[in-house]
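Subject: design request, 138 residues
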């Protein structure tokens, strides 16, 4: 099963990220993973939260533009080479990774990496066939 990611489009201005976190806090939403990519004028904030529908609703109500998409969250060993092994598997199977980021969530000795895959269904099939541990919720 995949996880819903919320992308929030932000103007690159002082305090805008703080507004997002405040809206989520007031709605009782817990952020489980976060990433931001920016340019001079705007940024894309990517979030994994504990209640994605409620988060998107709260953000939209506050005037933010959001989009939800499916991502795969894999639990991998927190050891040198663990991510390289997963990347090699995707490469050999020609599954393109659009982007990835890591979560603060994880068990001792494990890391959680969020993958946005170009062909999501093919990627999920590959993950299952190779016995990789996918996180279904945070």
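Subject: RE: design request

Done. Sequence follows.
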């Amino acid at each position: 099963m995949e996880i819903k990611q919320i992308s929030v489009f932000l103007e690159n201005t002082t305090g805008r990220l703080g507004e997002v976190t405040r809206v989520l806090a007031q709605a009782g939403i817990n952020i489980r993973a976060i990433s931001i990519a920016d340019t001079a004028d705007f940024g894309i904030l990517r979030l994994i939260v504990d209640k994605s529908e409620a988060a998107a609703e709260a953000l939209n109500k506050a005037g933010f533009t959001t989009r939800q998409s499916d991502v795969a969250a894999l639990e991998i060993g927190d050891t040198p080479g663990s991510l390289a092994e997963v990347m090699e598997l995707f490469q050999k199977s020609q599954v393109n990774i659009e982007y990835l980021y890591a979560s603060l969530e994880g068990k001792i000795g494990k890391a959680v990496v969020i993958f946005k895959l170009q062909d999501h269904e093919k990627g999920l099939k590959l993950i299952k066939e190779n016995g990789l541990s996918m996180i279904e919720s945070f």
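The beta strands are 3-11, 31-38, 42-49, 65-77, 97-102, 110-117, 133-135.
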